[in-house]
Amino acid sequence: MSAILVFMAGLALIIGRWMSGQRLMSKPWLEAGRVGEVAARQGSPMPVAKIGLGIFLAVVGALFSLLVSAYLVRMGGADWWSPPVPWLLWVNTAVLVVSCAAMQWATFEARRDGEEAIRIALDAALATAVLFLIGQLVAWRQMAAAGYVLADNPANSFFYMLTGLHGLHILGGLAVLGRVRIRAAAGSRSPQAALRLSTELCATYWHFMLIVWLVLLALFTGWANNLVDLCRQLVS
User: Fold this and answer.
1) Residues 101, 195: contact at Cβ < 8 Å?
2) How many whole angstroms separate alpha carbon 174 and alpha carbon 130?
3) Is the pTM of this model over 0.70?
């Protein structure tokens, strides 16, 4: 329940900022200025693709928040014992951070029309994202080899489900990122504005997936449990 409330508060903040950017609360009959200036201010500066991505990320965030809440509730069961966190997850986290940094670099180069640099940045983001997925599969094999199989206890099931779901979202992002890389390979034959927008959207998605992964890692290591206990003590 705490995770749901935190997510809903963050979602309300995002929606509020978006509404203010769309001028939905404005009073055009009270605005002064020439007709052309007022009409120019009333348009939406945000592309439709960014709005669509925001809605999609809100749905993904709601899904993960519900699963995290179920994880926290299920921890109270007598049959629950948390498995040790494989050390490889920390390496995978560093790899995902590097992938996000590469995507941010690609966004910067796209804004300044650096054709060669953006291709290098996208290649780095693709390579590190694939390396992250390979690392997650290796971590799964390490867990299974140590005896922490899927049906052994609920904690194991949640671990495989959450990491697998996150990996599927990374895999889907890789498909889109591959298309952006093909567009970047076209160079001057591809519209630069479309390339900039696609790169920014991929970077936003990558950063969101990093945040989700950090939340999951905090959950598996027990840090999130300590935070929830602290919030309960403050409320009580």
Assistant:
1) no
2) 8
3) yes
